[in-house]
Amino acid sequence: MHPTDRPRRLRTDGVRPLVSETSLSASDLVAPVFVDATTDERVPIETMPGHERVPVDEAVARVEEIRDTGVEAVIVFGIPESKDPNGTRAYAEDGVVQRALRRITGETDAYAIGDVCLCEYTDHGHCGVIEESAETDPTLTVKNDETLDLLAETAVSQADAGADMVAPSAMTDGQVRAIREALDDAGHEDVALMSYAVKYESAFYGPFRDAADGAPAFGDRRHYQMDPANRREALREARIDAEEGADVLMVKPGLPYLDIVGDLRREFDHPIAAYNVSGEYAMLHAAAEKGWLDLEATAHESLLSLKRAGADLIVTYFAEDLAGRL
Ligand SMILES: [Zn+2]
């Protein structure tokens, strides 16, 4: 008895690369950069080994380190010098991200993306303007329409500072249209928009909240971020953002939501991005530290799975470490 089909014939060293369906390269990756207005020196982020918050003066050096590995794109997050209820430092002309973007785009050839949200800048840690009663009201919600103007202002201020692309992550209904219109009105019709179209209320964001100091002071984000139980709703969210003018549609987190990446790939012709989030990074690091997993191999396999599921680009904390070895 001989098997009728022998897939193993195509697994020898000589032919494996010829029939490989998916590849990963440095040009697929976007590296997050944390710029911190409260420090004069680089501060390691404990829950994300290998990552640091850097002062504005170090932003260019940080980006050059990333570019030296072959990664050309960065997404900039900010830790402001002060916070208030309306997150005013998110859209200040001399805000930490605006100052960093000016330097990065003026002094390097990096493709610079600005993350557009308010949670790192509000004293309550939520992604927009909140109800007055929020602190005592368990049905707390961010005021949707009041937040739109602030997000649009943030995006325009980042574009004014040189951002090549803005990436709204607040899950505010209508944010893509509001930002697109504001950018166009300000003469930034060439600035691209990558929407965090499908962002789940996930427990995998923990380490990032240490990194960006953006944990909510009370409550959680389940009234505006998506329920992890929902799959069809992801297509609805993505469709809205596509219609409102998003150039790239993102799914966040990545690994626990590969089905969603696949769904968006099939449904849309837009480039699809996946955010391989801080928890996905931290868990591999923690296991590797214990000697339980091979860090490089599991990181590579993780990112490859996001590509295989349909992502064109991946925002990942592994960008630098992997790029040099691809
Ligand atoms: Zn936010």
TrEMBL record:
Pathway: Porphyrin-containing compound metabolism; protoporphyrin-IX biosynthesis; coproporphyrinogen-III from 5-aminolevulinate: step 1/4
Residues at the catalytic site: 199 (schiff-base intermediate with substrate), 252 (schiff-base intermediate with substrate)
Family: Belongs to the ALAD family.
An annotated Gene Ontology molecular function: zinc ion binding
UniProt catalytic activity: 2 5-aminolevulinate = porphobilinogen + 2 H2O + H(+)
One example of a Gene Ontology biological process annotation: protoporphyrinogen IX biosynthetic process
Top-level taxon in the UniProt lineage: Archaea
Entry-linked PROSITE patterns: D_ALA_DEHYDRATASE (PS00169)
Biological classification of the source: Archaea, Methanobacteriati, Methanobacteriota, Stenosarchaea group, Halobacteria
Binding site for 5-aminolevulinate 1: 209, 221
Binding site for 5-aminolevulinate 2: 278, 317
Subunit and partners: Homooctamer.
E.C. designation(s): 4.2.1.24
This protein's name: Delta-aminolevulinic acid dehydratase
UniProt binding sites for Mg(2+): 237
Keywords: Heme biosynthesis, Lyase, Magnesium, Metal-binding, Porphyrin biosynthesis, Zinc
Binding site for Zn(2+): 117, 119, 127
GO CC terms, sorted: cytosol
